[in-house]
Structures are given as C-alpha cells and as structure tokens.
Design brief:
Elements lengths: L1 H11 L12 E5 L2 E5 L1 H9 L12 H11 L2 H8 L14 H13 L4 H4 L14 H16 L11 H6 L8 H11 L6
Antiparallel strand pairs: 1-2
Helix pairs in contact: 3-5
Length: 186
C-alpha cells in the first residue's frame, strides 16, 4: 500500500522518488513481441485505489459508501463476506490491497460511522477460474429467470413514457403491493 501511495504522489509530482518498478513482461505475437513496461502494469492497477473525489471513487470508498447505507446490524456481516468478481479480481494481491485500503479508510474518512468494524473478509471460491470469472453473470442470470423480475423491471415503453426518464425507487413498488393485500394476507 505504501508503494501505491508513492505512485499516486509521483503521478501528481514527478519529483517524488519511487523504487524500481516491477520487471517488464514480454508477450510473443507470432514473429513480433509486445513489451509491457512494469511501471505501466503497476500504474494501471493503481487507478482502482485513487481517490478522485465525488465522481471517481476508489474500490474501497465505493464498498464503504454502500456499507454505510446498510442497516447497522448488517454492516459487520457484509464487511466479513465481501465478494470480488470478474477478471480483475484475479489480480495477484488485489484482495489484500482492498482490505488494507478499507481498514485505512475506516479509521480515517469513515471513523464516525464504521470505526468499530474491523472484521474484513472476502468470500473465496474454489480454485476453479470459471467460477471466479462468471459468478456475477451467473447470479444475474438466475435473478433474471425469477418471477420477481417483472415487478422490478421496466419495459421500454414504460421507460419512454416516464417523465424526465427517472426510474422509480423499487421499494415504492413493494409498498404499493402491500397496500393492495387484504389484512389477513399480510
């Protein structure tokens, strides 16, 4: 994490000294070779952890922003069952770096709301790469086959008919549903 902070400072002020970057990687393509500089590989991953203000949040900031919105009694459960999915989740050291960033933010920027939460853990899949890469798609696919998808979706016609194209809060649809039930059905 310290090296990552130094890289971010170096981007803003090139007079900052950084240690030797990781080695370059050579990728053969038929008769030619693509050389990926170590610094470029390292700096590309650092984008995930840079605080860009309100518009460009780091992975850790996004996670904590979501956790803060969760009911208090569920925050510890959520933080101890984080799930990183997709190709980038296979990056070596990503989970430990995210955990370090989360802990740093919990004790600084989110101290007033989350300082008692320190049990950060990631849900880990078996070693099968397919499960890690496609579990988000699989979850979305399973959700899409449920009957509940109709009550949480808008047709294209509904979308176009809405004024200012604002999507309603889906919880209001649930409230409307319960209002239609008879008292004995609740």
């Amino acid at each position: 994490m310290d090296r990552g902070r130094k890289l971010q400072k170096h981007e803003a002020d090139e007079s900052q000294e950084i240690e030797k970057p990781p080695p370059d990687v050579e990728i053969p393509f038929d008769v030619e070779t693509l050389i990926l500089p170590g610094y470029a590989r390292e700096a590309a991953a650092e984008v995930l952890f840079m605080d860009g203000g309100t518009d460009n949040r780091s992975i850790a900031q996004i996670i904590l922003d979501i956790i803060v919105q969760v009911p208090i009694d569920l925050r510890r459960v959520f933080l101890s069952n984080l799930l990183l999915v997709g190709g980038i989740s296979r990056m070596p050291g990503l989970m430990s770096r995210v955990k370090e960033e989360l802990l740093r933010l919990i004790f600084t920027d989110y101290r007033s709301k989350l300082s008692t939460l320190q049990d950060i853990a990631f849900y880990r899949f078996e070693k099968d790469i397919c499960v890690q890469l496609f579990c988000a798609w699989l979850g979305g696919n399973m959700f899409g086959t449920l009957d509940v998808i109709e009550s949480r979706s808008l047709s294209l016609e509904e979308w176009k008919a809405m004024s200012a194209k604002s999507v309603p809060d889906w919880t209001s649809k649930i409230d409307d549903y319960f209002k239609t039930l008879e008292p004995k059905e609740r």
